[in-house]
Amino acid sequence: SLTMAVALLSGCGQQETAEGGTPSEQVIIYSNADEEAITAMTNALNAGGYAGQYVFQTFGTSELGGKLLAEGTNLEADLVTMSTFYLQSAQEQNTMFVPLTFPVNTLEEVPDYTAPITSQEGAIIVNTEVLKENNLPMPTCLKDLADPVYAGFLAVTDVQSSSTAWLLMQALVSEYGEDGAQTVLHDIYANAGDHIETSGSAPLKLCEAGEIAVGFGLRHQAVAAKAEGLPIDYVDPTEGNFSLTESVAIVDKGESTNPLAMKMAQCIIENGRPELQENYPNLLYE
Q1: Which residues of 26-56 are buried (b: 16+ CB within 10 A; e: fewer)?
Q2: What is this structure's pTM?
Q3: Can you count the helices (H) and strands (E) in the chain?
Q4: Span 137-154, pLDDT tens digits
Q5: Alpha helices of the chain — where are they, by DSSP H?
């Protein structure tokens, strides 16, 4: 089944140690977030007086998901920011997160151990000039991307390493069922060839560079690129735009739970919003 398509990737995250503080006292934060979100969270923490008291370590989505499922409360991290559906799976399996002690006034109800930081939607991204130069039709739906006419002109993300691919997957499954989705996805991946990317923003970057004509990526990034006057447009596929959230959660370490972790989570949620919303405009909070 498609839910099993997540392979556990090995490899190291990049460790960024803030100045000062000893590792034992520092709050260790594991995150699958994009650079823009990490920057916004770091700025919020530093402005909140926590500079030097935390370490951010970044991972690919499925790599971090694998760690959560495999390690549970033995995870080195005190605080995690991660695709919400992974946090829910890890909580169901390992009961590893504590309820948040600060108010989380979201528009939609969320589990009491999570507070969303970003919401991201998928869309088809096109370079209008490359499309025209190669007499390619404007796609209207995700199934169009399986048409051999786009072979060599398409970039998508790898479901094993990017949560952006799950947005594509959710839309295909909801429209065509699991079997139909697998067929369409197979043909999309065949068309993408060498351009099955590990990063969610890679298809847009390849479109911007004119290396490809069509990509599936994050809608808010395409909207921004178009607004800058680049030859970029976006198509909301007829199968629908699915969105997924990334949330913050605190690992339950019993007596040795770092008390600063909850304060930092609150700081990220309450002080990080304005900058986070510059890049991730979907509304999450009242």
Answers
A1: bbbbbbbbbebbbebbbebbbebebeebbbb
A2: 0.79
A3: 9, 10
A4: 999 999 999 999 999 999
A5: 35-47, 61-71, 84-94, 128-133, 164-192, 202-208, 219-227, 259-271, 273-279
